[in-house]
TrEMBL record:
Source lineage: Bacteria, Pseudomonadati, Pseudomonadota, Gammaproteobacteria, Pseudomonadales
Enzyme Commission numbers on file: 2.1.1.181
Domain of life according to the entry: Bacteria
Native source organism of the sequence: Denitrificimonas halotolerans
Entry GO MF terms: 23S rRNA (adenine(1618)-N(6))-methyltransferase activity
Protein name listed in UniProt: Ribosomal RNA large subunit methyltransferase F
Length: 319
């Protein structure tokens, strides 16, 4: 059984290098066999236009490369592309390491906050496996957290990943972070779109390539799924991240680095302006690339370089 080359230019520490070994993936997740197809180049692939195939493929990747034996999400919830999510984790580790002479932050002495973890809980799973970080993972959707709870219980991860329900749908950190908690950083995959129509339009663009694999098939609206709160919100990502920035000021002394993915490069300078208004000490735009796809996350801190160095030394000593 053949392999398939995956996107180039992944982070050097990303486990998803080279080609997908479908024989190995099927060995750990036999359900994947049913979704195996030949792409236009005659190579083995899976039907990425099929949401069920994508979910099973993710389960196989997580089991083969991260030892996650049980992972599943309900139909309709966002099923993230794992290689790209891993790049965010590794690039964030590099950002933090800049203040520690290049030494990567590893171990349970460091805690991260995943804002909007979803049913997939992907950032905590990857971040804990590769760096040993503890996580607070919050979401406004109780059903999503119930699913994530099952994943954590099935893999004995409840002690290192804590799920918290955000009861205020307009808040990010309020009501979730407890007084006195110190976090190495925050991550967020914001709802990129401003409406359901915009989300469908964005998905339609993907079908220009995916549809070529099986042009006769009726394609779903969203191959990676996603509930409304996962994909769109009033004002889209610009409003979402801007409001997060404003709220982050009140948690400046509890968090070393705040970060969020930003899908549209045109939004960066507008968000940087907001960050300047709230008094961010340092702002970084970290670029990532997965093949032809370009992505980025915005990072900001209210701490000087010297303060950040002292923070890391103190947290490392608490491990």
């Amino acid at each position: 059984m053949g392999t398939q080359r995956r996107a180039a230019l992944l982070h050097p520490r990303n486990r998803h290098q080279g080609r997908y070994d479908f024989a190995a993936l099927i060995a750990v997740e036999p359900r994947l066999q049913a979704f195996l197809i030949r792409n236009p180049y005659g190579k083995h692939s899976i039907d990425f236009a099929n949401p069920t195939a994508v979910r099973v493929f993710n389960a196989a990747l997580l089991r083969q490369l991260y030892g996650i034996k049980h992972w599943q999400i309900p139909e309709g919830y966002l099923c993230p592309p794992v290689p790209g999510r891993a790049d965010y984790i590794h690039s964030l580790a590099d950002l933090i390491a800049q203040d520690a002479g290049g030494k990567l932050p590893r171990g349970a002495g460091f805690t991260m906050h995943d804002v909007g973890t979803g049913a997939n809980c992907i950032y905590p799973l990857l971040g804990h496996h590769d760096y040993g970080w503890r996580f607070i993972a919050s979401d406004i959707d109780s059903q999503a957290l119930a699913c994530a709870t099952q994943t954590l219980k099935s893999n004995a991860l409840e002690d290192v990943i804590e799920l918290r329900l955000q009861q205020d749908k307009t808040a990010y950190f309020k009501g979730v972070l407890h007084p006195g908690e110190r976090l190495l950083g925050t991550l967020c995959n914001p709802p990129f779109h401003a409406s359901a129509m915009e989300a469908r339009s964005g998905s339609a663009r993907k079908w220009r390539n995916l549809g070529k694999q099986a042009p006769e098939r009726k394609l779903p609206e969203l191959n990676f799924g996603g509930k409304s709160n996962e994909l769109w919100c009033k004002g889209g990502e610009l409003t979402f991240v801007r409001n997060m920035i404003k709220e982050s000021k009140g948690y400046a002394q509890q968090v070393l680095w705040f970060t969020s993915l930003v899908s549209k490069s045109a939004h960066i300078h507008l968000l940087q302006r907001t960050l300047q208004q709230v008094g961010a000490v340092e702002i970084q735009v970290v670029k990532m690339a997965q093949g032809q796809k370009q992505s980025r996350f915005l990072a900001w801190t209210f701490h000087t370089p010297e303060q950040r160095k002292r923070w890391l030394i103190q947290e490392a000593a608490n491990k």
